[in-house]
């Protein structure tokens, strides 16, 4: 069980500050959750994440089922102990991953048959199996197995997928209830926390399909939180905003809304403005490994030759353990020399940047200045350092 | 200036405990220095190294001259500030690196002409230039530029190289004196510490050449410490031990002896037994990145399938931040999944292992049990987990 308490609602926008109470910790929202697909936030140590202010992490049921296996993780005491993270965890169901396996999958009402991306072995996911996998992993928040479609999908495809996701939600809930007594992992990790299941609102870019899905999900029962899926998958940016605006009145105000797989710094600000409470994305770590730093003056490409002897920090406004110790010149040197520390430090800075952005957003909402704050930050974040001529 | 104070001499062996006082810190010896060739101990953060108990780090003048350039590092306030390490630093001169560039170099009395391993550009190192590079880097301990030969080199090659190294030492010292007033970096970093220059004893595997070199070096003057080079470069293991035994009476007891580029855990124990105070080696980080962990029961290959669900730590006797948090099963999962965290964690454990081994050695010497301690550890360290049949 997790409980959400709405603490402050912005007057000019849908932005809100709240607290999510789980058995393990209290999470201030809006919150960004760093992504640890394979039970590790790429290149980072859980202690660093904690120091940077991360309160909740993500992992992925599909990936962990294939490797090392949810049975192994259960045997070792569950996902928290496995990855040495004692804060709350959310596991994505793997819907997005399975439906990304173009040509390797076959969908029917029962579930999805696919080939493992690791060894090509034939596998089958059903909503029930995915619940059982997540039970074994022991995540605090489990996501339903949903039918994910590309951002350009037409209306009829979107309707079919959304309706199937609703039927799968019903099956997921039954399996979730049936296995309630079997929360072996929670006992093993001795945290006493129960698990909860979030539904996922689908419907592609079609606003009325989204509304229908939200209503149908609410009719099914009372949920601890609501996932909004199938966005940031190739659709135009304005479509995401329209969907969020349409969903706000359809979702209960006293439950958290989780915008899945989003996003970049400006997406977070826009999402908060439209009432979103939880975000996750691989962007900070992936961009970091590619040498791009998020900063309060936009993006910075650390490989830029102009930084060769730049003594300044990545971001002069940042207080992370990278910016307080290392110069751009040093970080550029590490990148050019292909040193592993480069990947760590840029990933850490970027994760810290998003966590700090969330802290600032919460503070702006509480102090009643969110509108001006958001406008300023959207402008700042849009800037990308021009690349020097090659 | 650095000062060495001998604190305890073992009765049955040449092992000794001492303290090396530099302007930045006091180093308990015997000590292992992790290697940060390019101003970064591969995959590790200086804060982690500090926590693991590292007191002094190494960097490399050859590598840093080529990239990012000692001029850049000087401009940024020196190597300590550049890499955010406020403890003592030693820079190797690059003799080993330059002489490893087979076919890319030409040696004469003046110095070595070679091609950069990065861009193929033509470069020239002289003893004087190498001193100036290290002055600019600002390391606490600078090493002379020496002529390094392969471990199988014959007597006449070894004699020539050793005698040239002696002549280069004299030139290095003159340049060191000449540039004494120009210690710009030390002022910039505001640590006030002076720099010192260590000679390097060469002579291949030929014991009397080694003795002659040591005597000639001592006749040149009083040095703050003595490097022993050209070992662990392909010669038989017993040759290294013979050289160390021959050198012990030739080197002053009240100065530290630094065995360069050594080594593996058992080499450290054998070196200490023969009177060595300082060691450096890339082994802990390189082996870590390859998936091999040093443990108190010998070596462990973390990729071994038998560890798939092993809940135990890498080393049950280890108190490092890896062993106290993560299972072998988790570390194996990270390695098999090619996750970056794997490289960090095994490197960190291995570095901690060697630092802890040094702490134990010091404690054994102080308590008068070094002989039995060394025998037991040589035996433990010799064990390598058998590989499972493929």
What can you tell me about this protein's structure?
Two copies of one chain form a homodimer. Residues 185-192 of chain A have low confidence and may be disordered. In chain A, helix 12 (283-289) packs antiparallel against helix 14. Chain A has 15 helices and 17 strands. Chain A has a five-stranded parallel sheet with strand order 4-15-14-13-12. Chain A has helices at residues 46-52, 61-66, 70-75, 79-83, 95-100, 127-137, 155-178, 184-188, 207-220, 237-247, 265-273, 283-289, 328-336, 340-366, 370-381; strands at 3-9, 16-21, 26-29, 31-34, 57-60, 89-92, 105-107, 112-115, 122-125, 141-143, 196-198, 200-201, 226-228, 257-259, 278-281, 292-295, 298-301. Chain A folds into two domains: 3-280, Queuine tRNA-ribosyltransferase-like (TIM Barrel, Alpha-Beta Barrel); 288-381, no CATH class. Chain A is of the alpha/beta class and 390 residues long. In chain A, helix 11 (265-273) links the parallel strand 14 and strand 15. The longest helix of chain A has 27 residues, at 340-366.
Q: CATH homologous superfamily of the largest domain in chain A - what is it?
A: Queuine tRNA-ribosyltransferase-like
Query: What would you call the quaternary organization?
Result: homodimer
Unreliable spans of chain A: 185-192
Distance between the termini of chain A: 55 Å
CATH architecture of the largest domain in chain A: Alpha-Beta Barrel
Shape of chain A: globular
Question: Helix count of chain A, per DSSP?
Answer: 15
Report strand % of chain A.
15-25%
The figure for the number of domains of chain A is 2
The CATH topology name of the largest domain in chain A reads TIM Barrel
Helix content of chain A: 40-55%
Greatest interface and its residue counts? A-B, 38 and 38 residues
CATH class of the largest domain in chain A: Alpha Beta
What's the main sheet of chain A like? 5 strands, parallel
């Amino acid at each position: 069980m997790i409980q959400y308490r709405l603490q402050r609602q912005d007057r000019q926008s849908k932005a809100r500050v709240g607290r999510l109470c789980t058995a393990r910790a209290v999470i201030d929202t809006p919150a960004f959750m760093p992504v640890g697909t394979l039970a590790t936030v790429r290149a980072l140590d859980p202690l660093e994440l904690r120091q940077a202010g991360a309160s909740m992490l993500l992992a992925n049921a599909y990936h962990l089922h294939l490797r090392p296996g949810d049975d192994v993780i259960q045997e070792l005491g569950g996902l928290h102990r496995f990855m040495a993270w004692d804060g709350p965890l959310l596991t994505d169901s793997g819907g997005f991953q399975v439906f990304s396996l173009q040509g390797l999958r076959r969908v029917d009402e029962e579930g999805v048959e696919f080939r493992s991306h690791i060894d090509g072995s034939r596998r089958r996911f059903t909503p029930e199996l995915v619940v059982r996998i997540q039970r074994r992993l022991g995540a605090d928040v489990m996501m339903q197995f949903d039918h994910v479609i590309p951002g350009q999908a037409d209306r009829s495809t979107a309707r079919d997928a959304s309706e199937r996701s609703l039927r799968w939600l019903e099956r997921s809930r039954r399996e979730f209830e049936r296995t309630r007594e079997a929360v072996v992992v929670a006992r093993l990790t001795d945290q006493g926390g129960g698990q909860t299941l979030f539904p996922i609102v689908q419907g592609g870019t079609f606003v009325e399909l989204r509304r229908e899905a939200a209503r149908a999900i609410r009719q099914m029962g009372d949920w601890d939180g609501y996932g909004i899926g199938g966005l940031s998958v190739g659709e135009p940016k304005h479509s995401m905003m329209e969907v969020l605006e349409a969903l706000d009145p359809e979702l209960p105000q006293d439950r958290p809304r989780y915008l899945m797989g989003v996003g970049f710094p400006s997406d977070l600000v826009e999402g908060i403005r439209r009432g979103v409470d939880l975000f996750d994305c691989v962007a900070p770590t992936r961009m970091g490994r590619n040498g791009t730093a998020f900063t309060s003056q936009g993006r910075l490409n650390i490989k830029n030759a102009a930084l060769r002897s730049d003594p300044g920090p990545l971001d002069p406004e940042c207080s992370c353990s990278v910016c307080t110790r290392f110069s751009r010149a040093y970080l550029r040197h590490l990148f050019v020399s292909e040193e592993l520390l480069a990947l760590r430090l840029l990933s850490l800075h970027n994760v810290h940047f998003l966590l700090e952005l969330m802290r600032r957003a919460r503070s702006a909402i509480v102090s009643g200045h969110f509108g001006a704050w958001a406008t300023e930050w959207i402008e700042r974040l849009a800037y990308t350092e021009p690349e020097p001529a090659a």
